[in-house]
Amino acid sequence: MQQRPGIEPPPGCPAHGNIPLYGPRFGSDPDGHYAHLRGLGPSAPVDIAPGVEVELVTSYDAALYILQNPASFVRDSRRWNALNEGRVPEDSPALPMLAYRPNALLSDGAAHARLRQAVTDSLASVNELQLVRQTQASADYLISRFSSERLGQAELMAEYAQPLPLLVFSDLFGCPPEIGDRVIAGITGLFSGSNGADQLVAEALNELIALKRRNPGEDLTTRLMQHSAQLTDEEMLHQLITLLSGGTTPLSAMIGTASALILGEEWQSGLPVEDAVTQVLWNYAPIANYAAHYPTHDVELGGRVVKANDPVMISFAAANTDPRLAEHREQLSAKAHLAFGAGPHACPAKDPAFVIAVTAVETLLNRLPDVEVRMPFKDLGWVPAPWSRSLVALPVRFTPRIVVPTATQQAESPAAATHVAATPRPATSGAPKAKAGLFSRFLAWTRGE
């Protein structure tokens, strides 16, 4: 078995010898784990969470074959053998990521085509210039919160990369301030493991759906609702949850890692931000391991037989860095990476995501031209979870300065327009006024308040 020099084989799970793709050891060296797994073939069994086994595909060619072969590999997790047989722990952290929901991501055939068409048509209506302005306004607000304080130091993951996509998405979906505050709190809680976060998100989005049924607007929620697919409220809820949760965390990772790369000591001066984001998509896939497929029949992968309805998961991170691609990388398109998937379930929001990430990094560099990372890129830590490749923290320093909303943001920003059109829930008589959340404070800032 070939291994990278200096890489010890990762320890297997005590239950059945599989390599665990979670925890501090994995987080400290994901690339070493992938290198070891490649030595076992195009795929190998791993534990994606305690007691949860999947077949992980690390080969680019094998991953592409599975992603482009929906007849033999389907996405509906109701087929999952171990889950149906009670072999998946009820409190497993893998269940929220893999359990079935009536959305385009986990549907197949005609049901998938109908839901996906509604999503892609709605996203196609997003104006790129408007999206850039929304991202710049969100970026300016977040920078304004830390740029004039604490002697020119900040932690960009928590203070910039993580909240920025949530602000942009709340704006795009036409959230009133109070609903936007709860959506942001709920989505943030989902990824930090907070109790009740899923209920908070569902309640806030159900209110948004009800509001848009009564008062349609110029926003993604309304366009999705008015699509000819005629989505039910339940389908609306799950498409919105998928777009919000599936879009914000990978975007945070893209923004954070691209910022770290372009501010790092090894980055070649003068290269555009687009190059940094593209490098992230190739070498640090934001969605690292996901896209569980369920074979409709027993299949052979590199000499291993995977039973029908046992989960086969794609390691986008390993596939993109497959050494067999090295000799062909110069001939490949810059977009040939699998970070956004491929085939019928490829990410429908890849173009808006790229625009948001590039704009976020460019705005940071423009507003804080002397910003620099406080440690080498190689010493930055990664989140010890299998699903995403995201930095734990990105500490920076810069010359303190004041960032204020431009006149254009105050007069014409989509965020301000959203606020004017919104109808927040009336406060209870005599009750103390609740502290404004992040989205409310952002909208007030765009108005110069």
Polypeptide structure, described:
The protein is α+β, with helices and mostly antiparallel strands and 449 residues long. It has two domains: 1-107 and 288-338, Uridine Diphospho-n-acetylenolpyruvylglucosamine Reductase, domain 2, CATH 3.30.43; 126-283 and 342-449, Orthogonal Bundle (Cytochrome p450). The chain is 47% helix and 9% strand. The protein is built from 19 helices and eleven strands. The chain has helices spanning 24-28, 30-38, 60-67, 81-84, 95-98, 109-124, 128-146, 156-161, 163-172, 177-192, 197-214, 220-225, 233-263, 273-283, 316-320, 350-367, 407-412, 414-421, 438-446, and strands at 19-20, 43-49, 52-57, 73-74, 153-155, 289-295, 299-301, 304-306, 312-315, 372-373, 395-397. The longest helix has 31 residues, at 233-263. It is globular and about 65 Å long. The termini are far apart.
Extract low-pLDDT stretches. Answer: 1-7, 411-432
**Number of DSSP helices?**
19
The proportion of residues forming helix, as a percent range, comes to: 40-55%
Query: What's the CATH topology label of the largest domain?
Result: Cytochrome p450
Largest sheet: 6 strands, mixed
Q: Return the CATH architecture of the largest domain.
A: Orthogonal Bundle
SSE order, one letter for each helix or strand: EHHEEHEHHHHEHHHHHHHEEEEHHEEHHH
Supply the number of structural domains.
2
| Number of separate strands | 11
Outline: globular
CATH homologous superfamily label of the largest domain:
Cytochrome P450
Biggest sheet, strands in spatial order?
A: 1-2-3-9-6-4
Radius of gyration: 22 Å
